[in-house]
Amino acid sequence: IQKMLGAICSPFEAFLLNNGVKTLPLRMEQHQKNAKALATFLSQHPKVSKVNYLGLETHEDHLMAKDQMNGFCGMLSFELRDGLEAGMQFQRNIKFCTLTASLGTADTLVTHSASTSHVNVPKEQRLLYGITDGLIRVSVGLENIEDIIADFEQALG
Question: Disulfide check for 140: which of 5, 72, 74, 100 has CB 3.0–4.6 Å away?
């Protein structure tokens, strides 16, 4: 069991987990609120060809998600019209948000998969999984949404 599930957490880790669970609903509410606002901004930007966020009414699976979920989470992705170079330029321009290869903290995290986590995966294989040259993945954090949007706006140029 230990091999499959890991060791028992330390008392301090248990304390941190217990503390975090107490504020989880508040954090998720802000996480989702910020994601919806960012997705709305991105869906109207001329350099963005597509936004993948179930909370947008224009998303093909919005109604099904609305029936099945209490919210739409804080994760989204979007496609830049100009592909690989645009994705790499966006990544170079980010200043406020954090660039990373993995997602999921209280901070807004951004990754351009084609030039980071999937750089060694052949393009044909990436495309089979929907990882295009211009795909940007985002875990929207709890920061002030105006700061997040301002960073994305300046990064998009």
Answer: 74
**C-alpha dist (Å) from residue 14 to 8, 10, 18, 21:** 9, 6, 6, 11
Judge contact between 91 and 112, C-beta under 8 A: yes
- pTM exceeding 0.90: no
Q: Using alpha carbons, select from 76, 82, 106, 98 the residue that is nearest to residue 156.
A: 82
In total, the chain counts a number of residues equal to 157
* Neighbour tally for 23: CB within 10 Å: 10
In tens, the pLDDT along 114-124 reads 988 898 899 99
pLDDT along the chain (157 residues), means of 10: 75 91 93 97 97 92 90 94 95 95 86 89 93 95 97 96
